[in-house]
Specification:
about 400 residues; eight-stranded mixed beta sheet
């Protein structure tokens, strides 16, 4: 089997694809610099009549920079299934509030996001021709189900379900429990209005009410309200997904999964003040696809904007993937939240070989933060930054 994993140059966002034998594709997140930019990029990446079938699209969360290309991707292709984290009341409110704050006047409504939320809330199992499956948060079940990606999958499955591409390659989504909203932290003059919006059952009306609220009180004021509501500048409720090979317990490592892995990277990091110009070209970097007795070079953890800074969050995700015999096999990781200093935790990178951040060349947040990259590098985990500069590509070729 040949697998090509690409970290696409889309700037401040995230768009990652894995192609199996150039016939089947799996996608994680689909957002970038802007909606217009993503449409042009998708046109250049996917031909009018794609030979590859998109079997699955995993979306970490509904913040605009992670999904502003999704509607066009669904229009452009015949994607079979869309995997979304279940939308709790807290997550819906946070999503609509956050996305509103990203607009210049704060009063723009993303109708596609609203339609996704309404589809899930009303138990509609399709958006267009694409079937929807939602991932519930952490399950207490000891025996979790396992499904083939191209088989019949229920509309709701528990966090930790194994979704199999073939008998070796598996995807394991992890949907953390939703954080609680702290209305008590908000100035009393805003509180009753916000609580009323929070309990609104229609996502469309909720989005309009939030847009009106932001327009009335200004984006600047509402950003402070957002911090108070969610306990920080960015509520990184995000669904990570493990991707890679989990050999059967009775199989000796290295057989028959011998393979090679090869990276092509050309990354100009000057604007991040980190390591200048970096180039690596690794061919047959190991005789097998195992770097150690446990690490598997194909195995990767996508994180979206996972909030890793909180100790309990990082401990929880490590515990979760250890229980699935996956954590100790991970070789590479997506640096959460574009390399923000607020989402760094050293435990994520212990034993990892490389880490990748997607960030805009001149993004206003100055992601990735130089301290984050330096700390990762000091842990002997090599960090790479992929921007919207189209010559920059990070591709991983895996044979097994």
């Amino acid at each position: 089997m040949e697998v090509t994993r690409i970290f696409h140059p889309v700037g401040q966002g995230g768009f990652y694809t894995e192609s199996f034998e150039d016939k089947r594709m799996v996608v994680y997140d689909c957002g970038g610099k802007s909606r217009e930019f993503m449409e042009e990029y998708i046109d250049s990446f996917i031909p009018e009549n794609p030979k590859q079938q998109i079997e699955a699209i995993f979306i970490s969360h509904l913040h605009d920079d992670h999904i502003n290309g999704l509607q066009y991707l669904l229009h452009k292709t015949s994607a079979k299934r869309l995997f979304l984290p279940c939308f709790s009341q807290e997550i819906v409110f946070e999503t609509l509030f956050y996305n509103s704050l990203q607009k210049p006047n704060g009063n723009s409504i993303n109708s596609f996001v609203v339609s996704l939320i309404e589809s899930v809330r009303s138990d509609r199992s399709f958006i267009g021709d694409t079937r929807i499956t939602t991932i519930s948060d952490e399950s207490s079940e000891r025996e979790l189900p396992s499904y083939s990606l191209n088989g019949n999958i229920p509309p709701i499955i528990p966090s930790g379900t194994h979704l199999n591409e073939d008998k070796f390659w598996v995807y394991i989504p992890y949907n953390p429990k939703s954080p609680k909203i702290k209305f008590s932290k908000v100035d009393i003059k805003y509180r009753s209005t916000l609580e009323q919006i929070y309990y609104e059952k229609s996502a469309e009306k909720q989005a309009r009410d939030i847009a009106d609220f932001v327009k009335k009180y200004s984006v600047k004021t509402c950003k402070e309200i957002y911090k108070a509501l969610f306990g920080g500048i960015h509520n990184s409720q995000s669904m990570p997904v493990f991707s890679g090979i989990l050999p059967p317990n009775n199989m000796q490592l290295g057989h028959p999964l011998t393979s090679f892995c090869h990276f092509d990277i050309d990354i100009d990091c000057h604007h991040h003040d980190f390591h200048g110009h970096c180039f690596i070209d690794w061919h047959h970097c190991t005789p097998h696809n195992y770097l150690s007795s446990k690490k598997i070079i194909s195995n990767f953890l996508y994180t979206g904007d996972f909030n890793a800074q909180k100790e309990e969050n990082t401990k929880a995700i490590i515990k979760f993937y250890k229980e699935h015999q996956a954590w100790d096999t991970i070789c590479g990781i997506q640096i959460p939240h574009h390399g923000s200093k607020h989402n760094y935790h050293p435990a994520l990178y212990e034993g990892c070989y490389y880490a990748v951040a997607s960030a805009g060349v001149t993004n206003k947040y100055r992601h990735p933060h130089v301290d984050t990259l330096n700390k990762i590098y000091q842990q002997k985990c090599y960090p790479f930054v992929v921007t919207e500069n189209s010559p920059i590509r990070f591709e991983q070729y895996i044979h097994y």
